[in-house]
């Protein structure tokens, strides 16, 4: 007996195209061609259903095309139209809407993506409220839109995300079980606040964290704060630029360590957590931030958390900003040198942020005359590592007198006119340099 294709087999083909759409960006066109032929076919067994159209949306979403967001909305509209025309198998459901929301949320290149995603969510809610239970929004629906706001550039992204979180609570209280707020929803909302840069970001994120802890104490298992949430609350405090931000961050770290010691491994601070605490110190106005940074680094090691290059870069950046008398500044610089030796000893490789941090500390804490031997030593180490990129060279040139660089370069001309491309190859061998612009070359007209 001849095996004939049906809508299930054709949908499987489209799903297969979706899985490889990242590598083959023409796959959505193939998927559209397949579903177009299915729509034109008079055999009921070959007619596309809501699952088929959802697969086409997935294909657009996975390929990363700028058309994905608009095409997803068009497909949702088509599903409603076909259902109204009598094709009952095309009735939109929650999954179809969620895929469309995800396609819009992922299209960050499209201006207004978060607004468009929320507009579609509103359509979904309106249909549910008027009796269409098949499109009941789920927690995933809300989280997808919240994530779109969090990753947008809107300064009110935290407020938008929290408004959606409140709507989740309201719908759940009204009897919609699958929209219950959970750890992911709270985490996304806190992340949105951490990226907002608003002065109340820290207090709002802290409030959400307290809510989670309260719900958890009341027995809600899916409302448990974890290391990512605690760390993002820290980020929110830093972004708020409040005078007590560092105190709040340190209190969160202490709470995380206490929770971890009591057996809650999900709250144990990780490398990123400690890096954020060091960042908070660097952004603070603490009078002895170098000592504070050293305490955090020691705490990190004591708890068994491994530092990475970001840890040391941030630590050295904090030390560079230390203020005080000559003794304080010299101690801060000695901590920078010790950190540099330590990171090399444990096998970490200095990156493009390491050298500027070291030289910033040098400029802030050393005297070009009194500390010339130390400066010479640092300069020679920098050359030996071939670490002079354009940013670092311009910074060092602004600190060191022209006569110093003339001697190092064995040149008598004005070093202030030099670019990084004029340096010996040894000085720049481990950095990527941009192309040298030819001033005699004119741009050709298209």
Describe the overall structure.
The protein is an all-alpha fold. It contains 21 helices and no strands. Helix 1 runs parallel beside helix 3 (50-63), helix 5 (94-106) runs antiparallel to helix 6 (113-129) and helix 16 packs antiparallel against helix 17. The longest helix is centred in the C-terminal third of the chain and has 20 residues, at 326-345.
List the helices and strands and how they pair.
Layout: H1 7-19, H2 27-40, H3 50-63, H4 68-84, H5 94-106, H6 113-129, H7 139-150, H8 157-173, H9 183-196, H10 201-217, H11 227-240, H12 245-261, H13 271-282, H14 289-302, H15 309-320, H16 326-345, H17 354-365, H18 372-384, H19 390-399, H20 402-409, H21 425-428
Element-by-element helix/strand order: HHHHHHHHHHHHHHHHHHHHH
Low-pLDDT runs of 5+ residues are 436-441
- What structural class results from the helix and strand content? mainly alpha
Radius of gyration: 29 Å
Strand content: under 5%
Q: How many strand units?
A: 0
In this structure, how is the largest beta sheet organized?
A: none
SS field, number of helical segments: 21
- Basic shape: elongated
**Cα distance, first to last residue?**
62 Å
Let me know the average pLDDT.
Answer: 92
